Amino acid sequence: MSILIVLLCIVILILLITWGKLNAFLAFLIISLLAGLLLKLPPEKIMSAVQQGMGDTLGSLVSIICLGAMLGKLVAESGAAQKIATVLMGAFGARYLQWALMITGFIIGIPLFYGVGFVLMVPLIFSVVYQYKLPAVYIGLPMLAALSVTHGFLPPHPSPTALVQQFGASMGITLLYGLLIAIPAIIIAGPLFSRVVKNIKSEPLELFRPQAIDKTQLPGSANSFITSLLPVFLLTATTVLNYLLSNNQSAKGVLTLVSEPGLIMLVSVLVAAFTLGTGCGRSMKSVMAIYGEAVKDVGMILLIIAGSGALKQVLTESGVSKEIAAALETWPVHPLVLAWCMAGIIRICVGSATVAGLTTAGIIAPLLAKTSVNANLMVLSVGAGSLLFSHVNDAGFWLFKEYFNLSIKDTLKTWSVMETIVAVTGLVGVMILSYTIG
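^ Gluconate transporter, sequence as received from the core. Prediction below:
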């Protein structure tokens, strides 16, 4: 009966967001309270569970997500993203423009949030389309596939970062595994798949003709690449050092501190304030204004994550999480596949990858504790499932349709299929890693 109540609550959550058009944060709060009442949690404990869930979930995430937004905003505003694209396009030449844009999307996608990255990169795609007279969908899909993969798979993006915390995974190891899975996923969903849809006609709207920053005002190439990728370099370096010096007790405390993702993001943001800020002629006041704007951009994302934490805590307090875990254990499906399917179903119903990933985490976390499944791979499996088949209830679907001026049918044939390829390839990569590392 308890499991049926949880399923009912998830259905109502989906209906509130899709049919009722309710904000996801409000929907999570309503369902958390409803679940507490239906699962017969003592009334006085329901609100305390909601508050505890929100606090515990946000506690370790606020700094990482806000600092990540600050770094991404400065990378965009300073022209570092444009510089990276210019350098790569010059290096690859006209023949391999797709690959240049794909790599640009991947590099820029690591510090930039998806919506910001999309709006920033699409004018760049169109500038290439106009200059070289190439099909817009053919040129654009590889870059957008790269942005999508970084959004779903890689920290410090909100959903994978929250999943790392909920599953007790390692940020650095998840990032390393994520990079291994992301590269083939992007290549298959990007340059390879785009050949299939090369003949789909797209006439980008004049409104989106690019207004580029003057080349003389762009930061240097090394500065742009190093600053944008600094969190990746630092996370990778500290993860490797932790592995190499695991038996060195005197270094353990220091390594624990310096490998904290929050500290790594803080260092990256402070470095960027000088390298892309004051070092490029901006005042510190203007850099701080950019950082302030960035925090506003992620406010709602933080609230949605908090709402998912509230629901997770209500399920935990009621004891139904353990019941679900016990029931799922008997299913003849690998836990990684099960998690991917759950995230995929919720994604198709709700549209939001973040909501799909976080809702799945609350259900699957107790099962993870009872199995020997690698927590880092579980993060990636849920992340991959949360990207499955974007369609008319997803904001990304409409962004792509309107910017590329496509029909709904052609958007489904291009964007929706690309997202599905990313999700399926991601699951295949997770399973190969699972059987490889044991």
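The radius of gyration is 22 Å.
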